Amino acid sequence: MLNEQTIATLNALKLFGMARGLEERLNNHNHAELSHAEFVGLLAQDEKTYRDNQRLKRLLKNARLRQPACLEDIDYHHPRG
Asked: Can you tell me the distance from the alpha carbon of 33 to that of 54, in angstroms, rounded to the nearest whole number?
């Protein structure tokens, strides 16, 4: 019950990345051997990753690109003349 309250509190504080990370890490038994500082550090990293991803999504949406493109799609083997 305490974990559910903690996740609800994190969501209320708009720490959605931490809430999702906490839920995932509590279900994974490999993280049981981590110290408290390491566990909190991983949760903070989850939050930062979540915010970075949200920022990137927002920027890409606001860019209104006509065609989605990425560097992996460039064909460097085609002769350019």
From this structure: 31
The pTM of this model reads: 0.73
Asked whether 38 and 17 are in contact (CB, 8 A), the reply is no
- Which candidate, 47, 1, 54, 56, places its Cα nearest to that of 24? 47
Sign of the CA dihedral running 30, 34, 36, 41? negative
pLDDT at 1: 64
30 burial via Cβ count (<10 Å: 0-12, 13-18, 19+): exposed
Extract the tokens encoding 26.
Answer: 């509590």
User: What are 79's two structure tokens?
Assistant: 């002769």
> For 13, which DSSP code?
T
